[in-house]
Design a protein that fits this description.
Layout: E1 2-7, E2 14-15, E3 29-34, E4 41-46, H1 48-62
Antiparallel strand pairs: 1-2, 1-3, 3-4
Length: about 60
């Protein structure tokens, strides 16, 4: 899975490098989750907590 982020006012999505490497607070950004080949959006634009919660759910059921 691939996580992407963008500032709330921007239009272009960027690859998420990690929480400590983005400038400022995560509340200033929108996040989304895509499959590994980047063809399907698993979680549309949302907050950091919402996207990470869904990411954990998918990982849990994948390895169950």
């Amino acid at each position: 899975m691939v996580m992407q982020y963008k500032l709330k006012g921007e239009t272009r999505w960027k690859k998420y490098p990690g929480k400590d490497k983005i400038e400022g607070s995560v509340s200033k950004y929108n996040f989304r989750l895509l499959n590994a080949s980047k063809t399907k959006v698993l979680v549309p634009s949302g907050s950091y907590a919402k996207v990470l919660k869904r990411f954990r759910q998918i990982e849990f059921f994948k390895h169950r």
